[in-house]
Automatic annotation (TrEMBL), chain A:
GO molecular function annotations of the record: ATP binding; P-type potassium transmembrane transporter activity
Protein name, as recorded: Potassium-transporting ATPase KdpC subunit
Topology with respect to the bilayer: Single-pass membrane protein
GO cellular component: plasma membrane
Family per record: Belongs to the KdpC family.
Entries under InterPro entries matching the protein: KdpC
Assembly behavior: The system is composed of three essential subunits: KdpA, KdpB and KdpC.
Assigned keywords, A-Z: ATP-binding, Cell membrane, Ion transport, Membrane, Nucleotide-binding, Potassium, Potassium transport, Transmembrane, Transmembrane helix, Transport
Transmembrane helix as UniProt keyword: yes
Protein's job: Part of the high-affinity ATP-driven potassium transport (or Kdp) system, which catalyzes the hydrolysis of ATP coupled with the electrogenic transport of potassium into the cytoplasm. This subunit acts as a catalytic chaperone that increases the ATP-binding affinity of the ATP-hydrolyzing subunit KdpB by the formation of a transient KdpB/KdpC/ATP ternary complex.
Transmembrane feature ranges: 12-32
Source organism phylogeny: Bacteria, Bacillati, Actinomycetota, Actinomycetes, Propionibacteriales
Superkingdom per UniProt: Bacteria
From TrEMBL, chain B:
Function noted in UniProt: Part of the high-affinity ATP-driven potassium transport (or Kdp) system, which catalyzes the hydrolysis of ATP coupled with the electrogenic transport of potassium into the cytoplasm. This subunit binds the extracellular potassium ions and delivers the ions to the membrane domain of KdpB through an intramembrane tunnel.
UniProt entry tagged with the keyword Oxidoreductase: no
PANTHER family: POTASSIUM-TRANSPORTING ATPASE A CHAIN (PTHR30607), POTASSIUM-TRANSPORTING ATPASE POTASSIUM-BINDING SUBUNIT (PTHR30607:SF2)
Subunit organization: The system is composed of three essential subunits: KdpA, KdpB and KdpC.
Keyword terms, alphabetized: Cell membrane, Ion transport, Membrane, Potassium, Potassium transport, Transmembrane, Transmembrane helix, Transport
Single GO term (MF): P-type potassium transmembrane transporter activity
Protein name (database record): Potassium-transporting ATPase potassium-binding subunit
Length: 204, 554
């Protein structure tokens, strides 16, 4: 009985503390950080949006996408991203990886289908299709592809845009990021920025 | 795609960053939890809260404070989830279901952060920042407080079972440790590109002419404490795989660093609190050894890519992000399951069979490599006492740890601690795979389907929070089962730890004798590592065999 009374008293003190904590940690802290972000890096704080000219913007209505978010592509004149399992593909309201296991028959079938599709699209043998081209990313919003997958797509993109392959290859190189500090992460190519550059070069 | 050299380089950067900061933070933590002085802002807080900051509580009273405070946390968060449609910044989302809201409330109060919902499709900004983020802080501070109480219990002699003041520990943990580091961490993450705003969803038109919804939210402020407090609940469904939560390889390493910082520093501070730095170092060495084994095995598994699908594709890139690759994903997976964080930057369901097994085993060890904030230390100390006891049996002497006698009552408590989580976990998996409602949630059949269920109950019982995401867990059955596992998996061990802290505090310290087993030497590090792997690990050999081991061999 005294234990219960004690528990009740402690809970009341706990309730007062929860109110204080909510004001400090649940309002003051995130709002101060939001203020800091608005001053220190407003563009990134809103989601690293870019316009069709590649310029930075914080207005979604001017943007063609976020540098950080992958988006679907159906245009054969552009680079294709990795497969996406987010909703019907690239759905930011339904981010998802396939979550299929290494022995899943569904996953094996999906990889075979994607390999055939990419090989036919790029006019190469199935064995030349890199892994990231046939595997769904974790987020379903992966903005990047590997250098190998980018290189594989260069001839098709160059031909479709009447550009010399070397020019497209240069664009790929310009949009390739290496490992941070030489060791962190993987070399990668940002698909949206690369496609914007391709459009600009082809249009000029 | 990952190469070995950069994989090792990434590890080296992490080790250097930790080696530089852990001793510093460890010293600071020891000061925070032993200093008699209060900051002015803390004094003001104690007056408003009407608590006595210098009430040196009996362990029972301390335990009641822990339970009372946590109970309030569950109720407040439950109400938040049920009423979020009436709050500002709700983004038009309705209330969570009763079972879902209960599960989420328990999940965040127990520092588990299991997520049955998808953040971007269920939660408004206020629920995220004023409901969940608050519990990210205070649930972490509760873990650190209990660890501090246990360390003080061991440090005292004839202390009348008193272990300190809970509300003082809680307030100090938040004000002096978690908040300042989170502010720094969030600022760094913002500069690295993590999103931080209060915007509602907005449409944009993609290059392809399709519409993509731009989601907003106070992500960075939540991300920093989610990693630092080993919570792990993501703002978005895909957690730290989402480019808005974890945009670059550098933000990935910062996240990993934040997860490990406090657990390792707590081990360091333990040595200082018991006035023998070598004791803290020994515990830290065991944590680091186990973590290194986990990182090594997981990285090997993902880079070697065994299994039908990875071999067909040419690499284990299903469920991984291109910017992290296999090595950056494997390191994250080993750290998130070795601590009790449970954030993910890859889909663990799609890890290779041995890789997923290592992640699972990291949780099953009780998360002591290095474990959750606070819980990692007291979990490891329980095993240290068990090790001393086992060695005492071999030489026929009454075992002692740091001058405290391990008699029958103490070892019964330790045994209860060591058995609690395995009993919860194994009972949980038995219920899950025999109930039709349990099996209904599985995405796959065979050993992988079994592993999906096993991973879920292991994650809940150990308060981890990561998942094999193919499991559909947002059902009344899974929400209830996992909620119960999280609740008992958190507070039963805590009660045992506090009871033991009280007993040690009351005991007089024995002088060292020739028969005392030194607990700071390499020999003890080896023994403790062995006990962790054998005594705890053996509980799970049968279930691991049915899941990842069979799958690895198929």
């Amino acid at each position: 009985m005294t234990d219960l009374l004690h528990l009740f008293r402690q809970s009341l003190a706990g309730l007062r503390l929860m109110v204080a904590a909510t004001l400090l940690l649940g309002l003051a802290y995130p709002l101060v950080m939001t203020g800091f972000a608005a001053v220190a890096s407003p563009w990134q704080a809103r989601g690293s949006l870019v316009t069709s000219t590649g310029a930075h913007t914080t207005d979604p209505s001017e943007a063609v996408g976020s540098e950080l978010l992958g988006q679907g592509n159906t245009d054969d004149a552009l680079f294709f991203p990795r497969p996406s399992a987010a909703g019907d593909g690239w759905d930011t309201l339904s981010t998802y990886g396939s979550n299929l296991g290494p022995e899943s028959p569904d996953l094996v079938a999906a990889i075979e289908e994607r390999q055939a599709e990419v090989a036919e699209r790029e006019g190469v043998a199935v064995s030349e299709v890199p892994a990231d081209a046939v595997t769904a990313s974790a987020s379903g919003l992966d903005p990047d592809i590997s250098e190998a997958y980018a290189a594989l797509q260069v001839p098709r993109v160059a031909a479709a845009n009447d550009l010399p392959e070397d020019a497209v290859r240069r664009l790929v190189a310009e949009h390739t990021a290496g490992r941070t500090l030489g060791v962190l992460g993987e070399p990668r190519v940002n698909v949206l920025l690369l496609n914007l550059a391709v459009r600009r070069l082809a249009g000029s | 795609m990952s190469d070995l050299a950069p994989a090792l380089g990434q590890l080296a950067v992490l080790v250097v960053a930790l080696a530089v900061s852990v001793p510093f933070l460890g010293r600071y933590l020891a000061h925070v939890y032993t200093s008699p002085k209060h900051l002015r802002v803390e004094r003001a807080a104690y007056r408003v809260l009407r608590v006595d900051p210098d009430a040196d509580q009996h362990w029972r009273s301390y335990a009641m404070s822990v339970l009372g405070f946590s109970m309030v946390g569950v109720l407040v968060l439950y109400a938040f989830g049920r009423l979020q449609q009436h709050l500002p910044l709700s983004l038009g989302f309705g209330p969570l279901t009763p079972d879902g809201s209960w599960n989420t409330a328990v999940s965040f109060v127990t520092n588990t952060n299991w997520q049955w919902y998808s953040g971007e499709a269920a939660l408004g900004h206020l629920m995220q920042m004023s409901g969940l983020t608050v519990q990210n802080f205070v649930s972490a501070a509760v873990g650190m407080a209990v660890a501090a109480a246990f360390a003080r219990g061991l440090a005292r002699s004839g202390g009348h079972a008193r272990v300190g003041s809970f509300f003082t520990d809680l307030v100090r943990g938040v004000v002096r440790v978690l908040l300042p580091i989170s502010v720094l961490g969030a600022a760094v993450l913002i500069l690295l590109g993590v999103v931080q705003n209060l915007a509602s969803n907005a449409d944009l038109t993609t290059l392809d002419g399709a519409t993509q919804v731009l989601t907003g939210g106070p992500v960075a402020s939540q991300e920093a404490i989610k990693q630092l407090g080993t919570n792990g609940g993501g703002f978005y469904n895909v957690n730290a795989a989402h480019p808005f939560e974890n945009p670059t390889a550098l933000s990935n390493l910062v996240s990993i660093y934040l997860m490990l910082l406090i657990p390792f520093a707590t081990a360091w501070s333990f040595g200082l609190i018991v006035k023998d730095r070598r004791q803290g170092l020994a515990v830290l060495s065991v944590m680091a050894t186990l973590l290194t084994i986990g990182v090594g095995l997981l990285t090997w598994a993902e880079m070697a890519a065994p299994g039908t699908a990875p071999q067909l594709a040419g690499a284990a890139m299903e469920g991984k992000e291109a910017r992290f690759g296999e090595a950056g994903s494997a390191l994250f997976a080993a750290v998130t399951t070795g601590t009790s964080t449970g954030a993910v930057n890859s889909m663990h369901d799609s890890l290779t069979a041995p890789g997923g097994g290592v992640a699972l085993f990291g949780m099953m060890l009780g998360e002591i490599s290095p474990g959750g904030v606070g819980s990692g230390l007291y979990g490891m100390l329980m095993l240290a006492i068990l090790t001393v006891f086992l060695c005492g049996l071999m030489v026929g002497r009454t075992p002692e740890y740091l001058g405290k006698k391990i008699s029958q009552r103490e070892i019964v408590l330790v045994a209860a601690y060591v058995l609690t989580t395995p009993i919860l976990l194994l009972a949980g998996i038995a219920v899950a795979v025999t109930a039709s409602d349990g099996v209904a949630g599985l995405q796959e059949s065979g050993p992988h389907g079994f592993t999906e269920a096993l991973y879920a109950v292991a994650s809940a019982a150990n308060n981890n929070g990561s998942s094999f995401g193919g499991l559909t867990s947002g059902t009344p059955f899974w929400n209830t089962l996992l909620g119960l596992l999280m609740l008992f998996g958190r507070f039963l061990p805590m009660l045992i730890v506090l009871a033991l802290a009280g007993r040690f505090s009351a005991q007089q310290r024995l002088p060292q004798s020739a028969g005392t087993l030194p607990t700071h030497r390499p020999l003890f590090v080896v023994l403790l590592t062995g006990v962790a792997l054998v005594v705890v690990g053996l509980n799970y050999v049968p279930v691991l065999t049915l899941g990842p081991i069979v799958e690895s061999l198929s």
